[in-house]
């Protein structure tokens, strides 16, 4: 997909000022309810998990409690699995996949592993089907000490006491057609750059960290997800989105250089999912199922290795 037109906010070649950011904020429309879709589901799961608030976002007149679910019978002697969804609020199956996993999961990991699930890291963006937070910042580029996104800082502060206990961290994402039609042009406009069109991969794939390259782990997930939805093929040059495909359905690069969410725990097993809900070959339900299958396979692999 190619978008040669300039983004409607800002002046081509000039980074945004506070004025342009305000215009962008005003253009964002609430389209769904974090309370109905996320908070109410977590409330219904209180009998099975400890539901905790780890922060609060205050954007304009809006208040968003940041919530997570923990194993009810938490055991400090056991390793921890962290599942994060909605770091990019518009990526629906990440949020729904995390909630579906919580809903389906019973006691199969009790005595083996502690679960910690933050299903919607960026609720303001979830409601507006946006990639950025209120401040026009991408939370999934801010997982470091000087990060500018409150969503990222709150999650890092919450999980910091558990450093050294994490066995696995799965960060649930999507790649959509709006990556090219809306979010890439907006990013270029915000930074005063020219958009560089890319081709959206058609199918599921994983992002592996070259500093923590466990291709046996990544490949095990791909094999499981292939029973649910199709795996994205590489381009003719062996890449996807400009990154090398190191194994079918797996791209790999230095995640720390991008300050991605998957780097914050130091877990031995980490991955970032990407499903493609706009494909003619899949459905929203397939995408949610792929996220759940990923989480289960990732945890099972970590426990057996």
TrEMBL record:
Active site: 274
Entry-linked Gene3D superfamilies: Zn peptidases
Domain called Peptidase M14: residue spans: 30-305
Keyword Signal recorded: no
Keyword annotations: Carboxypeptidase, Hydrolase, Protease
GO biological process: proteolysis
Keyword Ribosomal protein: no
Any GO molecular function: metallocarboxypeptidase activity
Family: Belongs to the peptidase M14 family.
Name of the protein in question: Peptidase M14 carboxypeptidase A
Organism: Enterobacter lignolyticus (strain SCF1)
Source taxonomy: Bacteria, Pseudomonadati, Pseudomonadota, Gammaproteobacteria, Enterobacterales
């Amino acid at each position: 997909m190619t978008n040669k037109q300039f983004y409607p906010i800002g002046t081509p070649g000039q980074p945004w000022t506070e004025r342009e950011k305000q215009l962008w904020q005003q253009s964002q429309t609430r389209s769904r309810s974090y309370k109905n879709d996320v908070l109410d589901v977590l409330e219904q799961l209180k009998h099975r998990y400890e539901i905790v608030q780890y922060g609060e976002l205050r954007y304009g007149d809006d208040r968003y409690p940041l919530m997570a679910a923990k194993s009810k019978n938490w055991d400090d002697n056991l390793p921890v699995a962290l599942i994060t969804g909605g770091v990019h609020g518009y990526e629906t199956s990440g949020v729904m996949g995390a909630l579906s996993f919580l809903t389906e999961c019973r006691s199969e990991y009790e005595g083996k592993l502690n679960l910690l699930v933050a299903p919607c890291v960026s609720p303001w963006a979830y409601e507006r089907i946006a990639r950025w937070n209120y401040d026009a910042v991408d939370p999934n580029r801010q997982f470091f000490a000087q990060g500018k996104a409150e969503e990222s800082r709150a999650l890092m502060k919450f999980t910091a006491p558990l450093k050294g206990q994490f066995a696995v961290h799965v960060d649930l994402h999507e790649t959509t057609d709006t990556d090219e039609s809306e979010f890439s042009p907006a990013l270029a406009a915000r930074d005063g750059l020219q958009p560089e069109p890319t081709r959206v991969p058609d199918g599921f794939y994983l992002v592996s960290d070259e500093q923590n390259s466990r291709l046996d782990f990544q490949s095990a997930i791909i094999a499981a997800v292939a029973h649910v939805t199709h795996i994205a093929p590489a381009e003719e040059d062996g890449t996807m989105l400009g990154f090398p495909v190191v194994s079918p359905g797996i791209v790999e690069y230095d995640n720390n250089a991008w300050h991605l969410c998957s780097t914050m725990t130091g877990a031995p097993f980490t991955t970032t999912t990407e499903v493609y809900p706009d494909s003619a070959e899949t459905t929203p339900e397939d995408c949610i199922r792929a996220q759940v299958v990923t989480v289960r396979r990732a945890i099972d692999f970590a426990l057996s290795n």
